[in-house]
Amino acid sequence: SSGSSGINAEYGGAGGAFGSAILRQLNALHSDSATIIAVSRRVDEVKRATEGFKSAIFPISVDFSARQGLEGRCGAICDQAPDIKYEEVVLINNHATANHSGDKMAEFRDVEYMDSYMFLNMTSFQVLTSVFLERFQGVERRVCVNISSLAALRPMPSLGFYCTIKAARMMAYKVLAAENPDIRVLNWSPGPMKSAMTDDITKNTHSDSIRQFFQSEPWIATDESAGKMLKILADNNYTSGEQIDVYDR
Taking Cα atoms as reference points, which of 29, 4, 16 lies closest to residue 228? Predict the structure, then answer.
């Protein structure tokens, strides 16, 4: 048999706003051929979001913040895929958190917080990518997608660590693409979307410019952004490793 497999890894819950949109769009496009592994801390959200889907859905709960056994947990995600021949495997790597939006870079000195934040948002991101590529190294077409942000390119006051991690993840995937011409890599900037995170930033940021940005920026529909991303992947008309913003296409 043959088909495609997609792993939608989102720390905030694959049943959350953008994670749910990705799942809906994947199901709409590949309902008869896709195996979708939906990774979340809250599996019940995934089950509710995927009720009635025709695609084969395998929800799994994973805590990417725990250090011990991380590689094994990432392997367990890949092990959810049925043992069949795949034409394509896609990792949509979307697990991330925002830093405390009241903090300024000149004031950051909490070593424990910084260490745990970088582990969750960068180290586990990299380990999952590496394990995914190793587990599916025999598949002809492997695709890795980093859900990026404008914050990877533009400094945003009060979001220093978030910007730093987004820039690091973007560059990590650019290097991945440069080192592996056989792997298709995309950094996707989904645009501003209404979420609990943006609500928290608007409420707690010390930056008037950032507050005004989130209050005045028109929100993009999550399904629209997810649909555009999947169309770009399907058309395969992009330079591997580049960052594409939802408004670019």
Answer: 29
Identify any residues that bridge with 91 across adjacent strands, giving them in sequence order. 7, 144
- H-helix or E-strand containing 143? strand 141-147
Question: Rounded distance, CA 94 to CA 12, Å?
Answer: 8
Which has the closest alpha carbon to 19: 243, 248, 231, 225?
Answer: 225
pLDDT of residue 16: 62
Q: What is the pTM of this model?
A: 0.90
Burial of 41: CB neighbours in 10 Å, binned 0-12, 13-18, 19+? middle
Tell me if 207 sits within 8 A of 158, measured CB to CB.
Answer: yes
State the Cα–Cα distance between residues 138 and 72, nearest whole angstrom.
20
Cα–Cα distance measured from residue 3 to residue 55, given in angstroms and rounded to the nearest whole number: 11
pLDDT digits 0-9 by tens, 159-176: 899 999 999 999 999 999
* Token duo for residue 36: 């979708």
Mapping DSSP to helix (H, G, I), strand (E, B) and coil, where does residue 67 land?
Answer: coil
Structure token digits, residue 13: 């819950």
Q: Write the single-letter amino acid at 154.
A: R
Tell me how far CA of residue 107 lies from CA of 29, 45, 121, 202, in angstroms.
47, 36, 20, 20
